[in-house]
Design a protein that fits this description.
Helix content is about 50%, strand content about 10%. By secondary structure, it is α/β, with parallel strands linked by helices.
């Protein structure tokens, strides 16, 4: 029996109105001149106004500064620009508010503050990441769970490929989960981000890495999502559904410290090459990925089916998988996530580049069954 480490260290403040605590929580962690990191689309939202009011009302002479240039699929320059503003204004910490992209950039800014000349391609050659500027995460979507993660996904300038920057020191000092901040999220984004959380839970549970604690969290995440996501999609003001989705998204991210699988390796190149939203890319590849894995390991999705509320405990393995996969396919269809890749600008001429990047993506290395180059090609063609 090998030694294994289990870690769930991020403090989480959850509840409607939790954003009001941001100033006191910031002060508790030494932030007097924070840099707020977000994307340009968030600036006109009620969520950003709530943060501005919370920081302004309790500032009492403290200053905060803004970087709002984060791209939908964050690029290296987003981090560099944020770090430059951090140094220019002599900031002492980062508050990131937004979806996974803003949180990933906010989490990476302290890396460049500590090492201004850092080459992200050589990130893992650096060993000392102690003393990073404190980071506070405030999600306004319920998908990536980046607020409880210890990594950032950034597209590198040199390769135009996504790189995962991972280190425990990157974790947030506190994650503030306020379901009121997600009320304004449009149905399409609610669906896409929710599908991302669902994919995290499904792939982390089926990942063969030994982590029974994460397995339990993933299964409960599935249960919450299949109950709450359709409700949040239909009625964005349903705070109970919004709150359950925020918790489920965080649970998905906690669970995938196990790692992920083939669906994420299919999805990542769709973002870097074709500019597709990550959650949407996961959604459009999820059923095909499940069929691929279940067909090679019957019974794989039985417990996931139970989490969905299906009576599959006594079914034959293949039948349990078929019922679970059909349930997920129907769920996604009800959210408008049953389209083809070609309807989102993906063309046959993208195929070679997509396959090449998918093969190099690390997520499938921990897939429940091996995935070959030809497998990736067939899977893309299945959903094209």
């Amino acid at each position: 029996m090998s030694l294994t480490t289990f870690s769930f260290p991020t403090p989480i403040l959850f509840g409607a109105g939790a954003i009001a605590e941001v100033a006191s929580r910031s002060q508790r962690h030494g932030l007097r001149r924070p840099l707020v990191v977000t994307d340009p689309g968030l600036l006109a939202t009620d969520a950003f106004r709530a943060l501005s009011e919370a920081l302004g009302q309790a500032a009492q002479g403290r200053n905060w500064f803004l970087y709002s240039g984060v791209h939908p699929n964050p690029i290296e320059n987003d981090v560099r620009e944020g770090a430059a503003l951090f140094r220019k204004h002599d900031c002492d910490g980062v508050i990131a508010i937004g979806g996974g992209s803003a949180l990933d950039v906010g989490k990476a800014v302290p890396l460049l503050v500590k090492r201004p000349g850092l080459d992200f391609a050589k990130f893992y050659e650096e060993t000392d990441w102690s003393g990073l500027a404190p980071f506070i995460a405030i999600p306004t979507t319920a998908g990536t769970g980046s607020e409880v993660g210890r990594s950032s996904v950034i597209t590198l300038e040199a390769t135009h490929r996504k790189a995962v920057l991972f280190h425990p020191e990157m974790m947030a000092k506190v994650a503030i989960l306020d379901p009121k901040l997600t009320v304004g999220l449009p149905p399409k984004l609610t669906a896409a981000t929710g599908a991302d959380a669902l994919t995290h839970c499904i792939e982390s549970f089926t990942c063969p890495i030994f982590h029974p604690m994460c397995d339990g969290i993933a299964l409960e995440g599935i249960r919450l999502i299949v109950e709450a996501l359709p409700r949040a999609y239909r009625d964005g003001t349903d705070l109970d559904a919004r709150g359950k989705m925020m918790i489920a998204a965080a649970m998905g991210a906690v669970a995938f410290q196990k790692d992920l699988g083939v669906v994420h390796s299919l999805a990542h190149p769709l973002s870097t090459i074709c500019g597709m939203h990550h959650g949407q890319a996961n959604a459009l590849c999820l059923v095909a990925g499940m069929k691929f894995c279940g067909g090679r390991k019957p019974g794989l999705y039985r417990r996931g089916g139970v989490a969905c509320g299906l009576d599959v405990i006594k079914c034959p393995d293949i039948e349990a998988d078929l019922q679970t996969i059909k349930f997920i396919a129907d769920l996604l269809a009800g959210l408008g996530l049953n389209t083809r890749l070609r309807e989102h600008g993906v063309r046959a001429e993208h195929l070679d580049a997509l396959v090449a990047q998918a093969v190099e993506d690390p997520c499938h290395k921990t897939n429940v069954v091996p995935v070959t180059t030809e497998d990736f090609r067939k899977l893309y063609l299945e959903v094209l």
